[in-house]
UniProtKB/TrEMBL annotation:
Top-rank lineage group of the source organism: Bacteria
Enzyme Commission number(s) of this protein: 2.3.-.-
Residue ranges occupied by any N-acetyltransferase domain in the UniProt entry: 9-169
Keyword Lyase in record: no
Organism for this UniProt entry: Formosa undariae
Protein name (Swiss-Prot/TrEMBL): GNAT family N-acetyltransferase
Length: 174
């Protein structure tokens, strides 16, 4: 049985009430490196995105879920992107926005729930992620979920005038 509920957190769909939260996240320049964001997003564009968030993953090729605790505190976001049903693969990204909740197991629990959803509900064969070589916390998180580093993309991202390498990690459903 596929569930998006864990022991300490659950994953939920985006709601109109998430507008201010998503606007804050998308316009936080300190995390633009993680999402390859180049410019700020207006509330108007984010509202349009939220209005369309009900569309099927098979149509829009992505799914964004909110990570929440059982007191309904928003902890972060987790995404499925580049959904390719023909080849049964997709990318995964996660962001724990509440810094006080980092390194407490919430990201691991959310990632485990999403992997289970991808393999059992979406019937994917594999999931992958792209992580900057210097993002030790994310590398540890994904490696702990059995992701394997399968490649290093040299000078992949230009960040504040410096090129950074990026790892490609993959998890194949066995």
């Amino acid at each position: 049985m596929v569930t998006l509920k864990g022991e300490h957190i659950f994953l939920r769909a985006l709601e109109p009430e998430d507008l201010d939260f998503i606007h804050e996240v998308e316009n936080n320049e300190s995390i633009w490196e993680l999402s390859n964001t180049q410019t700020p997003y207006s509330k108007y564009l984010i509202k349009q995105y939220l209005d369309d968030s009900h569309l099927d993953i098979y149509e829009v090729k992505q799914l964004r879920l909110v990570i929440s605790d059982y007191e309904n505190n928003v902890i972060g976001l987790i995404d499925v992107f580049d959904f390719d049903f023909r080849n049964r693969k997709a990318g995964i990204g996660i962001l724990i926005t509440d810094e006080a909740k980092r390194a407490k197991g919430y990201g691991s629990e959310a990632l485990s729930l999403l992997i289970n959803y991808c393999f059992n509900q979406l019937q994917l064969h594999q999931v992958y992620c792209n992580i900057s070589e210097d993002n030790e916390a994310s590398l540890k998180l994904f490696k702990n979920q059995e992701f394997q580093i399968i490649g290093l993309k040299k000078d992949w991202n230009l960040v504040k005038g410096v090129y950074k390498n990026e790892f490609l990690l993959q998890l194949i459903n066995s």
